[in-house]
Specification:
Number of domains: 2
Structural class: alpha+beta
CATH class of the largest domain: Alpha Beta
CATH architecture of the largest domain: 3-Layer(aba) Sandwich
Radius of gyration: 23 Å
Number of helices: 10
CATH topology of the largest domain: Protein Transport Mog1p, Chain A
Shape: elongated
Mean pLDDT: 89
Number of strands: 15
Strand content: 25-35%
Largest sheet: 9 strands, antiparallel
Low-confidence stretches: 1-32
Order of helices and strands: HHHEEEHHEEHEEEEHEHEEHEEEH
Helix content: 25-40%
Length: 306
């Protein structure tokens, strides 16, 4: 109310109204600004149930992350990874609990790296929390959080979940998901089975297309790979947003030539496994039903691209 009153009383004073509004938005932006790993570190819990934090958190950057995650660092690099804070919690005579917080630079990339592994049961921790035996993960704002136990036990599971809740509470704000998700057709969309990416290697990991980047996926493209189930009809849809319509046209040609050479004039082909693949372009979007149980369902999905 105080800010509203200030704007109203200054309304008739030339120049000051604009200045006051700008200052108001600056103050609001400052308060809502997402904290950094440096901001988070002093507030992170020192206890997780009966487990105590070891001194000396480790911080990894874009180069040193390879020394920490052998063979898996490329996944984080593919989502523009910035830094990782790792804290180890120990229990006398027992297995450790490891907390890793990854600063991905944006909420979109935090969501993206989270979707690299979306197995597990949903849990109300952070954004879209997942729990599998021995491992909790979630994203919030521009951070991806991973907490795992070296050995499973009831006490360790409770400690991991409580630690997750405390860490999530320390991360300011909630981040938006990638805008391209809003353009996925809703008919049968499995909301918890969506992956977001902008690197061809990540696409091939989840659905192999080609050793070559025939869809011209780059840092300038947004990609959603989604699973669908409508009644007894299942499908997988790939939606790619390019910077220009020319990129779309070229990628459509490349995909048809290399992946669907037998497609008809409508861009549809019956695959060897008895499923249907169909490709369609719309503005800056290229939509590909990679496989569907019927041509009718594939074409229905493409007609409902948002």
């Amino acid at each position: 109310m105080k800010n509203t009153f200030q704007i109203r009383t200054l309304r008739n004073i030339p120049g000051l109204v604009t200045i006051s509004i700008i200052l108001l938005f600056m103050i609001q932006s400052t308060h809502s600004k997402t904290n950094s790993l440096k901001d988070l570190q002093p507030d992170l819990p020192m206890q997780a149930g009966s487990w105590s934090a070891q001194t000396g958190d480790r911080i990894f950057d874009q180069e040193t992350i390879f020394s920490y995650i052998d063979g898996g660092a490329e996944v984080y690099k593919a989502y523009n990874f910035r830094q990782c804070l790792s804290r180890r919690y120990t229990l006398s005579g027992g297995p450790a609990i490891i907390l890793d917080i990854f600063d991905m630079g944006s909420s979109e990339d935090a969501y993206g790296v989270f979707t690299h592994d979306i197995d597990g049961a949903t849990i109300d921790i952070g954004q879209d929390g997942r729990y599998r035996p021995g491992w909790l993960s979630f994203w919030k704002s521009r951070f991806f959080v991973s907490i795992y136990m070296e050995e499973e036990s009831t006490a360790a599971e409770q400690a991991v979940k409580e630690l997750g809740r405390q860490v999530a509470d320390k991360i300011a704000g909630h981040g938006p998901k990638p805008e391209i998700l809003s353009q996925l057709p809703p008919l049968g969309l499995q909301a918890d089975r969506i992956r977001y990416l902008h690197h061809p290697v990540m696409l091939n990991y989840h659905y192999y297309i080609s050793d070559e980047n025939i869809l011209n996926i780059s840092a300038d493209t947004d990609v959603a790979l989604a699973e669908y189930q409508l009644g007894n009809q299942a499908a997988q849809l790939l939606l790619i947003k390019y910077p220009t319509s020319e990129n779309v046209a070229q990628s459509q040609v490349d995909f048809l030539n290399h992946y669907l050479p037998d497609a008809d004039k409508k861009g549809a082909a019956l695959l060897e496994n008895g499923k249907w693949a169909v490709i369609h372009k719309k503005g800056h979007l290229l939509a590909i039903v990679l496989e569907a149980d019927s041509r009718e369902y594939a074409e229905l999905l493409l007609k409902n691209i948002q």
